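Meet my pick.
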Amino acid sequence: MKTSHLKLISWNVNGLRAVVRKDLFLPLVHTHKPDILCLQETKANRGQAEIDLPEYEEIWNSADRSGYAGTAIFTKVKPLGIVYDLPEEKKERFKDAFGNPLEEGRVITMEFDSFFLVTVYTPNAKRDLARLSLRHKIWDPAFLTYMLHLEKTKPVVFCGDLNVAHKEIDLARPKDNHKNAGFTDEEREGADHMVNAGFIDSFRHFFPDKTGAYTWWSAFQGARERNVGWRIDYFFVSSTLQKNLVSASIHADVMGSDHCPVEIVLSV
């Protein structure tokens, strides 16, 4: 059986229309040539940005609220099926927790022959931690439960902006941010549960001790130029796919968003 390589890239674009307008979206695609490109925080509906990529199929999950959240996937590989959102989002307790209801286009699941691919834009706990309890008690458990449910059928790859720096090595100033959104004990516990459930952080699989590897930088005080950042964008894979991991990388040189793209290559 012939083995081929599949390149997957994930990028929180923080507004796709702005990245396209700056002429920074197509250069990423043409330079890195992903087989599948997962986007978060698109803040747009399909057709609101002029994107000429006829070789890709486009799948969009946009928020009901204009200019907010949203995810999309551009794929050269035709999926067997597509599912939007989390099963939990259909339940009243989930809607009540995030308000009227949570239709923010945060999750897309695509099924392929040998694995499921899920892209996610995880809710931020907010600067005042207003969403921390809801995220910790509702979103994170619901998302992990869904990943484990999918894994009963076939291996899972999930990627996106998880809005948490898992370990101290994953942000430049851990001591200063211990009680801030993105590095609270509760959010980090959610990431612990993912690892304990058998999912592999692909970047740390290859680079367990690498410092200064970040995917998001504040817009203030030249944080990106000084590389005072956070690693909050990930590719996790089922443990059964560990042998299929060829490489993982962070494209910190790609501009256009306060996040940069992350990538894995899988043998399939």
